[in-house]
Amino acid sequence: MTSNYTIRLDADLRREAETLFTDLGMSLATAFQIFLRQAIQEQGLPFPVRKKQPNKATLAAMKEALGIAESPDAKTYSSAREMMEDILK
Q1: Please, how many CA atoms are within 13 Å of residue 82, restricted to the half-sphere of its CB?
Q2: Helices then strands, each counted (H, E), the chain
Q3: 3-class SS at 54?
Q4: pLDDT digits (tens, 9 = 90+) for 67-88
Q5: To the nearest whole number, what is the mean pLDDT of the chain?
Q6: Which residues contact 26 (CB under 8 A, 6 or more apart)?
Q7: 3-state class of 75 per DSSP?
Q8: pTM for the complete prediction?
Q9: Can you list the positions of beta strands (E) in 1-89?
Q10: Distance between CA 75 and CA 53 in Å, rounded?
């Protein structure tokens, strides 16, 4: 026994997914069924869901920016106009 379930997908996402799953020898419907079976087996999403972590270069830039911001020698401005005038000198 089967039942139908309708979902809305972004057209590009659907096209890319159909291409991928066709290359893997299955339909989009089969891929959804596999996803659902794995979710049931795992009792949750069958893959980790987390926010992306910044890479090493971004973390280093963030650390540098915090160091500059916390420095007592950091240049400060009382307005955006003052800052822009200094930058454009």
Answers
A1: 5
A2: 4, 0
A3: coil
A4: 988 898 888 899 999 999 999 9
A5: 93
A6: 34
A7: coil
A8: 0.55
A9: none
A10: 30
| Domain spans, the chain | 56-87
CB 16 within 8 Å of CB 24: no
State the Cα–Cα distance between residues 46 and 13, nearest whole angstrom: 20
pLDDT digits (tens, 9 = 90+) for 18-50: 999 999 999 999 999 999 999 999 999 999 888
Spatial neighbors of 27 by CB under 8 A, at least 6 apart, are 18, 21
63 neighbors 71 (Cβ within 8 angstroms) = no
Residue owning tokens 């915090």: 66
d(CA 34, CA 47): 13
Locate 67 and state its tokens. 């160091």
How distant, in Å, are the alpha carbons of 14, 48, 70 from that of 10?
Answer: 6, 23, 44
Q: What sign for the dihedral angle of Cα 49, 50, 52, 53?
A: negative
